[in-house]
Amino acid sequence: MPYLDSHCHLNDEKLIEDLDGVIQRAKEAGLKAVLVIGYDIDSSKKAIEIAHAFEGVYAAVGIHPENFEGLSFEALELIEEMAKDEKVVAIGEIGLDYHWYKEIEHRAKQKEWFIKQIDMANRLGLPCSIHARECLGDMFEILKAHPIKANAVLHCYSGSKEMLREFAKLGYYFGFDGPITYKNAVEPRECVKACPLDRILVETDSPYLAPVPFRGKTNEPKNIPHIVDKVAEIKETSVEEITKNVWNNFCTLFHVKP
Ligand SMILES: [Zn+2]
Questions:
Q1: pLDDT of residue 63
Q2: If you measure from the C-alpha of residue 39 to the centroid of ligand 1, how many angstroms do you get, rounded to a whole number?
Q3: CA of 91 to the centre of ligand 1 (A)
Q4: Please, what's the largest Cα pairwise distance for the chain?
Q5: The domain spanning residue 81 has which CATH number?
Q6: pLDDT at residue 190 above 70?
Q7: pTM, whole model, 2 decimals?
């Protein structure tokens, strides 16, 4: 099975300048599907443009929890219009970030934006790509109270393996990235081990989180095989077994038939 990248930001200024090169290198590395994720209005627009310019490239649109300041909820009407584009396969990235935001008020607003975007995804019948950082208790409560009908992936999963099992019971998917290749990342590797094969996705989150041996450099989708190798090693199975499951999971979750 081919490789794929289920979460990256080719719409980021670090990658957008050399898009042809980035896509070419991804193809040479064996990738056949790439999902470009928006995080505000402008990046969502760009994600759609990029998706239309390349075969096998898809888009997600949404407002990230760090990016709603200065916006009114009318912004979501724009996002909803964009989400009707044929290349848009998900709402995202949306969610909660408690790492950078400690104030109760900001967190309450994050929840409000998140729930509104879940409602939007449910109106459109789209799955979600979820950003969840240091917030998994609240995330779990919200997803229980506001289920995402077309399902979701917890992108760059960074919780415990116990929480992973709880989210897996609700049917969610988990995205794993470069950090599983980092020397000190014991917990992310335990999570890979605990993650059912029919719930696992791989992603670069490029331009961030480059895997070893590129740690610290600008990340690109072409680096996905390094993450897949590590997943196969942790799960003590073949690369083929991982790519097959990841491919099926991606097509099932995002309703994509590449
Ligand atoms: Zn991201």
A1: 98
A2: 8
A3: 12
A4: 48
A5: 3.20.20.140
A6: yes
A7: 0.97
Q: For residue 38, how far is its CA from the centre of ligand 1 (angstroms)?
A: 8
Write down the pLDDT at residue 54: 97
Residue 60: strand, helix, or coil: strand
**How many structural domains is the chain composed of?**
1
The rounded distance, in Å, linking the Cα atoms of 108 and 100 is: 14
Q: How far does residue 47's CA lie from ligand 1's centre (Å)?
A: 12
Calculate how far, in angstroms, residue 205's C-alpha sits from the geometric centre of ligand 1: 5
pLDDT for 257 equals: 84
At 258 the pLDDT is 67
Q: Is the pLDDT of residue 82 over 80?
A: yes
Average pLDDT over residues 59-77: 96
Domain that holds residue 152: 3-254
CA distances from 54 to 100, 248, 249 (A): 34, 21, 22
CA atoms of 13 and 44, how far apart (whole Å): 13
In this structure, are residues 179 and 206 in contact, taking their beta carbons and an 8 Å threshold? no
Do the strands 31-37 and 3-8 form a parallel or antiparallel pair, or are they unpaired?
Answer: parallel
Distance of CA 12 to the CA centre of its chain: 15
- The closest alpha carbon to 86, from 107, 61, 112, 106, belongs to 61
